[in-house]
Give the backbone structure.
Amino acid sequence: MTEKQLTRQQLAAMLLMTDAFALFCLRGGLSAVTAAAFAAGCGVQFVLALPFVVTVRRGRELPRAAMWTVLAFVVLWGGGLFRMLWDTAELIFTVPGNSGAISGRMLTSGLIAAVCVYAASEGRQALARASVIAAALGAVCLAVVAVSAATGSDWHGLTLAHSERGFLGDFTECFAMSGGVSTLILLLPGTKGEPFADTGAYFAAKGVISAVVILTAALVTGGIMPLVTCPVITAAQLSQPFQTQRIDALFLMIFAIFAVFALAVQTVAAAGALGRLIPQFRRLRSAAVTAAMLGAAFLPISHEIRAVGTAVLLLMPAAVLVTDRIGGRK
């Protein structure tokens, strides 16, 4: 039975939670230059995505070879998200001792993997509906942190914040942290409405969220940026919007929720693509792609390779348009 189409809000929620989780795990210095580079990167990605939007509007499907490539990138991006979770969990979740930290991270990753399989078994539509609620909760949390930072921090900290990567390096980092475009390629054809408007709304929201999160982190941690491993997480820990309750507990909850949804979305998208490519593979698809993502988490893939991969994914549909033109299709 064919699944119902996603709404624009559901598509955006599923993709933006993945992007927000990647932002939470950002490492290294962040500054206003980083925010500008990420915003510019989102704009360039939208332009590069236009050929894909055209193929969706024409009802043209990607060739099988291209679909296999997209599926491979979804698995690699899911592995990258698992790796981010593994590397960041020790800063988020309190576990005693070094051996306890390792076992705690393994337990967290295993539990999230199990949730991913369960979410995929419930179907894409159930995950999409839940994503809207989770994204709204996360948006409230991010707004509280941002407003608290803007009203309670010394704005001089923003001038102290420094990114050693520079604008071009931060621009490349934006592409490296945008593996979710592979999921966009799989989900957009099954979304209601106008593909151009849906894609534009997603990239616009992604640019705004990236700028707000990065500027907030730079504002709060600007004076201690060289000492900070994950500026966004540190900013959430240092922010105290309420006198009787720190934001730490709320952010921990949002971090865990976004981690689950980010990985579940990759699992659902990859399992759906695998089902279209191999219709005979009906059982354990979700478990198979989740296991593949866990394995991909240990692959030594540099940020530069991830950035190039994102650009290639966005440009790949242009080949389909060229093929249509050569074949005389409209």
